[in-house]
Amino acid sequence: MWKGIFVALALAAGMAHAQQWEVGVSGGYGYAPSLTVKSPAGSASAGFNNGAAFGVFGGNDTYDYWSGEARYLYRESSLNLSSGSTSVDFPAHTHLLTGVFLAHLRPRSAHIRPFIAFGGGLRIFDGTGHESAGQPLGNIAALTHTQEVLPTADLGAGVKVNVSAHLRVRVEIRDYLGPPPSKVITSAPGGSISGWLNDIQGLVSVSYTW
After folding, report:
1. Does the pLDDT value for residue 16 go beyond 90?
2. pLDDT at residue 105, rounded to an integer
3. Tell me: the pLDDT tens digits for 98-141?
4. Which of 112, 95, 102 is CA-nearest to residue 162?
5. What domain count does the chain have?
6. Confidence of residue 18 (pLDDT cuts 50, 70, 90)
7. Phi and psi at residue 62, in whole multiples of 5°?
8. How many angstroms separate the CA atoms of 41 and 38, rounded?
9. Within a domain: residue 9?
10. Residue 209: in which H helix or E strand, if any?
11. Is residue 166 within 8 Å of residue 209, measured between CB atoms?
């Protein structure tokens, strides 16, 4: 019995020692194609302005071809609404909380490791501007000071470069894909917002592994 317990403990210790963890920081820039808002009064393009993004991530990278991580990203994303020669911006930002799996094309020991990523989580919109009854294009839609939480997919591809035994650099493109907001961008009565919201981000990350 004692021999069995010793072997089990030894195996558990070996597995714990073999675990590899990673934490890092990311920074980059996001681009979101416009959505279309339609109402009885007409139509307009609506969405989020391009802006900086930065965040943190952490996860497990124990296996040769698979890893998983949790991510938080803050995105500067003021709202916009435009039709013809009229346009209006509204201060806002977005929080992205996701969990993803990474499928690597080369083993963990490789110096350069291309990968694809897929997962999902939550997108939290925060409209922070001051609302006005006289907002331009208000007969089509309103940009509002409110918070809205929606699901999002997190899809991407990139490459990891092992700079040293514990330092890693990553370059990637991520697409946060999900339903359009209906509160921070509120269509006029009888109107609707069509399309899916894509937020395409180019990111560079630096991480520490152990």
Report:
1. no
2. 97
3. 999 999 999 999 999 999 999 999 999 999 999 988 899 999 99
4. 112
5. 1
6. low
7. -80, -35
8. 8
9. no
10. strand 197-209
11. yes
CA distances from 203 to 67, 129, 158, 165 (A): 19, 27, 9, 22
**CA 21, CA 63: separation in Å to the nearest integer?**
11
Q: Which amino acid is at 15?
A: M
Residue at 7 is within a domain: no
Cβ contacts of 161 within 8 Å, gap of 6 or more: 111, 112, 113, 168, 169, 170
The pLDDT of residue 93 is above 80: yes
Residue 115's CATH number:
2.40.160.20
Does residue 53 sit within a domain?
Answer: yes
Residue with tokens 């500067």: 76
d(C-alpha 4, C-alpha 63), whole Å: 27
* 92: number of Cβ within 10 Å: 27
Domain assignment of residue 15, yes or no: no
User: pLDDT tens for residues 60-77?
Assistant: 999 999 999 999 999 999
- Structural domain range at position 100: 20-209
